[in-house]
Write a structure and sequence with these properties.
The complex is a heterodimer of chains A (253) and B (404).
Chain A lengths: L8 E14 L2 E14 L3 E6 L5 H8 L7 E6 L2 E2 L5 H11 E4 L11 H10 L6 H14 L15 H13 L5 E5 L7 H16 L4 E4 L11 E6 L2 E7 L6 H7 L7
Parallel strand pairs in A: 3-8, 3-9, 6-7, 7-8
Antiparallel strand pairs in A: 1-2, 1-4, 4-5, 9-10
Helix pairs in contact in A: 3-4, 3-5, 4-5, 6-7
Chain B lengths: L2 H14 L1 H38 L4 E6 L19 H10 L3 E16 L2 E10 L3 H5 L3 E4 L4 H6 L3 E4 L1 H8 L8 E4 L2 E9 L14 E5 H9 L6 E6 L5 H16 L9 E5 H44 L1 H9 L4 H36 L8 H27 L3 H6 L2
Parallel strand pairs in B: 3-8, 5-7
Antiparallel strand pairs in B: 1-9, 1-10, 2-3, 2-6, 2-9, 4-7, 5-8, 6-7
Helix pairs in contact in B: 1-2, 1-11, 2-9, 2-11, 2-12, 3-8, 9-11, 9-12, 11-12
Bound molecules: adenosine-5'-triphosphate (ATP) and magnesium ion.
Magnesium ion binds next to helix 1 of chain A.
Chain lengths: 253, 404
């Protein structure tokens, strides 16, 4: 971590706890999480089912607030913010990629990608479209601009979702099981894309079940029972592009 | 989100559920059309009745015998005979605000000429009657002062009598029989047709009042006395004047009730207008209830829409939509549904009004009813869209986005 210390801190968690009340019982989904994520890191978060990965990511994405502890995003403390302030924060600083894409049905790729900018009054219609096209080009969908979500493959839809996460030039990209629904080849294509974004200097936090994926990130955080069990730097980042090339060509299943 | 974006999003949502949106509009369309048609019929009837009454002379004042009967029935026969010759003479002598006076005695029965007969009413009047009623003669002459003095058996007849008894041929100089008394026809009244409540104004015979009193009814009192005020504006003064004259003539002490009633055509016009207004209000309220039901229909559809689009709402929130953005989106959608419905309803109402005209119902769309319709539709859109919109805005983004 030493090499990162002179870099800008994008995310800082200070003893974050999140309790859920289920009937009479209290579920401690997060039991005191503290870490810093620096600009340009590609962090994978792993852990068994129920270990609190999604809960943690919802905290990072300002979709939820901690029961206790502080979350500072890009220098702004989140816990005391109002709902609409958090909405604005999600709009300007965060790009969220969901496991099941979550695109608007019957809507073109461009319109889907431009959606976050609809909630930013700084963009007019033309600027929204330009930004959306640029983001789609960045994920390699420059030739699918006017395709509707139901006319695309799973991989293409996930690319559109990634483009949407990029379009507002966020401080951090959050992905929850972004490759969970995809076949091996397409998963690697996504990883190639994330690595490319990482190489461009983006901060990425990637929640996954698949331990393989940790090899392609710069840092891996392991959760268990709402606590950090392991937080390791990966000095030997593998190239997803090479792994993709090495995959057997006929991958029909 | 700014208004143009909201508008676009709402348009897309409505268009992607075009049929359902149309169905929920239908209630509004029918409701607004019903309200507009009802208002138009109310307004149209009112104006046609006012026109009718105005044609009959707005300065006419009618004096009837007997005290004003409030609620209960108080028909003392002697009180029905209070209008006497002395009253008439006293009015003629003292009138200042009254131009014309005609005592009236009537008799109804069969009228015969040759083999033809018809049932009609014979009006005994003074010379002033035509001037009061604004009637005129098409042919022949009215009776004279001399005829009144003698109680001459002469008459002028309406167009219906000419048609029924003379088959349209010239009746002047012919003798008709009413209750076996012969009357010589000396004039024909100009046709006035039916009035708006369907009464034939041409089925009349007018003769000197003395003739009816002496030869037909053998009565010494009048049924009514009809007067005309100098002008419509002077009607109230004329009524006061007539009241004073009659109280004096009847020796009514201060504080005692009148034994006659005086009413003016203007009063009747007001009563008619008020009655029509009441009927219109009842009709419009009934129609407005269908708008209420339509509003509930919209609320229902919007609630379904919010539930169906929970995931979309969650997504929009997760990319930065605030609660107000979401609630505005649904509000605009419901306002657009109800306004579009309102617009179509106005068009349908207008077509309905044309149809009313085609079948002869008087109907005039008051311009303000269109503005009111628009306002009501906006209120419905906001009012019934508010709860669903609020519900949408209060969704939790995490749960909404997971919603299947
Ligand atoms: N809204 C909620 N209400 C109550 N309990 C919750 C809620 N969300 C999460 N939990 C609980 O918090 C714990 C962590 O859940 P979380 O979804 O973060 O796990 P996860 O690591 O993402 O699991 P998976 O890998 O299966 O997605 C679980 O025990 C879960 O039951
Ligand atoms: Mg999860």
């Amino acid at each position: 971590m030493n090499s990162e210390q002179n870099k800008k801190v994008v995310i800082e968690l200070q003893d974050v706890r999140r309790d859920f009340k289920v009937g009479e019982e209290v579920v401690h989904a997060l039991r005191g999480i503290s870490f810093r994520i620096y600009e340009g890191e590609f962090v994978t978060i792993m852990g068994t089912s129920g270990s609190g990965k999604s809960t943690l990511l919802n905290q990072l994405g300002c979709l939820d607030t901690p029961t206790k502890g502080e979350y500072i995003l890009d220098g702004v403390p989140v816990r005391t913010m109002s709902k609409s302030q958090r909405a604005k924060l999600r709009n300007r600083k965060i790009g969220f990629v969901f496991q099941n894409y979550n695109l608007l049905a019957k809507t073109t790729a461009v319109d889907n990608v431009a959606l976050p900018l609809m909630y930013n009054s700084k963009y007019n219609a033309r600027q929204r479209r330009e930004a959306a096209i640029e983001a789609l080009k960045a994920v390699g969908l420059g030739d699918r601009l006017e395709h509707k979500s139901n006319q695309m493959s799973g991989g293409q839809m996930q690319r559109v979702a990634i483009a949407r996460a990029l379009v507002n030039d966020p401080a951090v990209i959050l992905a929850d099981e972004a490759t969970g629904n995809l076949d091996t080849r397409t998963s690697f294509e996504m990883l190639v894309l994330f690595q490319k974004l990482h190489a461009e200097g983006r901060t990425i936090i990637f929640v996954t079940h698949n331990p393989e994926i940790a090899k392609y990130s710069s840092r891996n955080i392991m959760l268990r029972d709402g606590k950090i069990r392991e937080d390791v730097q990966n000095d030997n980042i593998q190239s997803a592009a090479e792994a993709l090339a090495a995959l057997p060509v006929n991958q029909d299943d | 989100m700014n208004f143009i974006n909201l508008f676009k999003v709402a348009m897309t949502a409505i268009a992607s559920n075009a049929f359902r949106s149309f169905l929920s509009m239908l209630g509004i369309i029918i409701g607004v059309a019903a309200v507009i048609i009802m208002m138009a019929i109310g307004q149209g009837s009112k104006e046609s009745i006012r026109g009718e009454i105005a044609k009959m002379g707005t300065n006419i004042i009618t004096i009837r015998p007997g005290a004003e009967r409030r609620g209960g029935v108080r028909l003392d026969p002697s009180s029905m005979q209070t209008l006497k010759m002395e009253d008439y003479e006293s009015i003629l002598k003292n009138k200042k605000y009254v131009t014309y006076v005609s005592p009236e005695v009537t008799a109804s029965g069969q009228c015969i000429y040759g083999a033809n007969n018809t049932s009609t009413t014979i009006y005994g009047e003074s010379l002033d009657y035509l001037s009061i009623r604004l009637w005129s003669l098409d042919d022949g002459d009215f009776f004279t002062e001399e005829d009144i003095k003698k109680g001459a058996k002469v008459c002028v007849v309406g167009a219906t009598i000419v048609k029924e008894l003379f088959n349209g041929s010239n009746p002047i100089g012919k003798n008709i029989r009413f209750k076996s008394i012969p009357f010589k026809v000396i004039g024909v009244l100009r046709s006035k047709g039916e009035n708006s409540w369907g009464m034939d104004q041409d089925n009349v015979i007018v003769t000197p009042y003395t003739t009816v009193m002496k030869r037909l009814n053998a009565q010494t009192y009048f049924n009514t006395i009809t007067c005309s005020a100098i002008t419509e504006e002077m009607t109230d003064n004329a009524i006061n004047e007539l009241t004073d004259i009659l109280r004096e003539s009847h020796n009514i002490k201060d504080g005692a009730e009148d034994d006659f009633r005086i009413s003016s055509q203007a009063e009747m016009m007001d009563t008619m207008s008020t009655t029509m207004d009441t009927i219109t209000v009842i009709l419009v309220v009934a129609a407005a209830f269908s708008l209420l039901v339509a509003g509930i229909g919209i609320m229902n559809i919007m609630l379904v829409s919010v539930t169906e689009r929970t995931k979309e709402i969650g997504l929009r929130m997760s990319v930065g939509a605030r609660g107000i953005d979401i609630s505005n989106q649904f509000l605009i959608e419901s306002i657009m549904i109800s306004l579009t419905g309102g617009l179509l309803g106005i068009i349908l109402g207008w077509l309905g009004t044309l149809a009313c005209h085609a079948v002869g119902l008087p109907a005039i769309i008051p311009l303000w009813s269109i503005f009111v319709s628009f306002a009501v539709c906006t209120i419905i859109g906001v009012g019934f869209g508010y709860f669903p919109a609020k519900k949408a805005a209060s969704l939790d983004p995490i749960e909404a986005i997971r919603y299947e």
